[in-house]
Write a structure and sequence with these properties.
Layout: E1 3-16, E2 19-25, H1 27-32, E3 38-42, E4 51-54, E5 62-68, H2 72-77, E6 85-92, E7 103-108, H3 112-121, E8 124-130, H4 133-143, E9 150-154, E10 161-162, H5 165-175, E11 180-184, H6 187-199, E12 204-207, E13 223-226, E14 229-232, E15 239-241, H7 242-245
Parallel strand pairs: 7-8, 7-11, 8-9, 9-10, 11-12
Antiparallel strand pairs: 1-2, 1-6, 2-5, 3-4, 3-6, 12-15, 13-14
Helix pairs in contact: 5-6
Flavin-adenine dinucleotide is lined by residues 38, 49, 51-54, 65-68, 70-74, 110, 113, 209-212, 238.
């Protein structure tokens, strides 16, 4: 159900350079959120537009989000302290389809945030890509309790396999039996993941990010083209069947 929550901030910590993990006490939101959904956070009264963030964890009645400081809103959010209240609208959009069997999660950068929630709820392995070890180290710690295997790639070779997640993906999909692939991250990566999954005849869901305003399907600012026509990322997504959005 979509509601606004006045949630207490329990922690707001920098886990890597300019990347923060914010934890709020929101039992009802935690209980009703599905993996892949997002929330719209009101940064402060000075901001008219809320900012969208993926739900990364709902364990223990606490909702966690991870955010990179990229502009004015996230800069201000990083100054919020434990004990303060945060106004959150959610949970929004359509999440990942629950499935039997083991799932492979493939994420790049902050795209790993909604996949962490999927790791919490489904049986999964994760393939994570980052620019360097600093970008993947903290994610490794977050995913470790929830997955059987972690595969890592970095652009500079400072951790795991030297290269992109899509370089390692065919080998991983050939070695193990997965029922589906879920991916979130840079579009070029998701496009590659979708193509490789299709070659292996595996269902693939992609989670999209688009600049948003209302987050509720009313303003059309987040529309994308799909094989079924124009769709709104905030309401029809952010999770889509890869074949509907990458139809090469
Ligand atoms: C469904 C969804 C889930 C997301 N999940 C995460 C997450 O888990 N972690 C994370 O770090 N980031 C996430 N983002 C991106 C995040 O919303 C932006 O980085 C953030 O809004 C930037 O705000 P700002 O004020 O600091 O930046 P500014 O650039 O100053 O923002 C200006 C305006 O642009 C919008 N905007 C800017 N970048 C984006 C973007 N990439 N997507 C949507 N709107 C944007 C802002 O909402 C704001 O209205 C997500 C985006 C979407 C659409
Ligand atoms: S953000 Fe307004 S329709 Fe999607």
């Amino acid at each position: 159900m979509i509601k606004t929550f006045d949630a207490e901030i329990l922690a707001n910590e920098e886990v890597a350079e300019k990347i923060f993990r914010i934890t709020v006490d929101a039992p009802e939101l935690a209980e009703t959120s599905h993996a892949g959904q997002f929330v719209q956070v009101k940064i402060s009264d000075a901001f008219t537009l809320r900012r969208p963030f993926g739900v990364a964890s709902t364990a223990g009645g606490h909702v966690k989000m991870f955010y990179r400081v990229v502009g004015h809103g996230t800069e201000i959010l990083s100054t919020r302290r434990a004990g303060e209240r945060l106004d959150i609208l959610g949970a929004l959009g359509n999440g990942f389809t629950p499935r039997d069997g083991k799932i492979l999660l493939v994420g790049g950068g902050m795209g790993l945030a909604p996949l962490l929630c999927a790791a919490e709820k489904f049986s999964a392995d994760v393939l994570m890509g980052g620019r360097n070890s600093g970008e993947v180290d903290f994610w490794q710690k977050e995913f470790l309790p929830h997955v059987e295997e972690i595969f890592i790639t970095t652009d500079d070779g400072s951790a795991g396999h030297h290269g992109f997640a899509t370089d390692l993906l065919p080998e991983i999909l050939s070695a193990k039996n997965y029922s589906a692939v879920l991916t979130c991250g840079p579009e070029i990566m998701m496009r590659g993941v979708a193509r490789i999954s299709a070659e292996k005849n595996l269902p693939c869901e992609v989670s999209f990010e688009k600049r948003m305003a209302c987050g509720l399907g009313a303003c059309l600012s987040c529309s994308i083209d799909t094989v079924d026509g124009r769709r709104k990322v905030c309401k029809d997504g952010p999770v889509f069947d890869a074949r509907k959005v990458f139809c090469e």
